[in-house]
Write a structure and sequence with these properties.
Oligomer: single chain
Number of strands: 12
Largest sheet: 3 strands, parallel
Helix content: under 10%
Mean pLDDT: 85
Low-confidence stretches: none
Strand order of the largest sheet: 1-5-9
Number of helices: 2
Strand content: 35-45%
Structural class: mainly beta
């Protein structure tokens, strides 16, 4: 849903840099293009899923672009999460059936990403 520009030598990704032992990231997705001066330790979803951590129903835009500081595209070193197209990430069936997000909390917006219900003004 935007761009990330980082100069860190640590873990970096579209959703989180690290998922520690015993932690769970679930029912989430990201759509970020990433520019990184250091291309090591990168991933589409989580930069480092530590042994004993869990990713459950996590997705990323299959068209995400990773570039180094010179503008050259590169492929991340790992691949946490599941690649999915934008139309699916924006669909009601994906949000409410696949991810089981609450219709009380989330509202879909045609050809856009969902918004929290309180963000939508009539």
């Amino acid at each position: 849903m935007g761009d990330i520009n980082t100069k860190t030598t640590g873990y970096k990704a579209g959703f989180a840099g690290i998922n520690e032992t015993g932690a769970t990231i679930s029912k989430s997705f990201c759509d970020e293009n990433i520019t990184a001066s250091n291309t090591a330790k990168t991933d589409y979803f989580v930069g480092n899923a530590v042994v004993g951590s869990t990713l459950f129903k996590c997705y990323y835009n299959e068209a995400m672009v990773f570039t180094n500081s010179a503008g050259t595209a590169f492929t991340p070193t790992t691949a946490g999460g599941t690649a999915t197209d934008v139309a699916t990430l924006q669909s009601e069936s994906f949000l409410f059936d696949t991810l089981a997000w609450s219709r009380d909390d989330w509202t879909t917006v045609y050809l856009a990403y969902p918004k929290l219900a309180w963000q939508v003004t009539e």
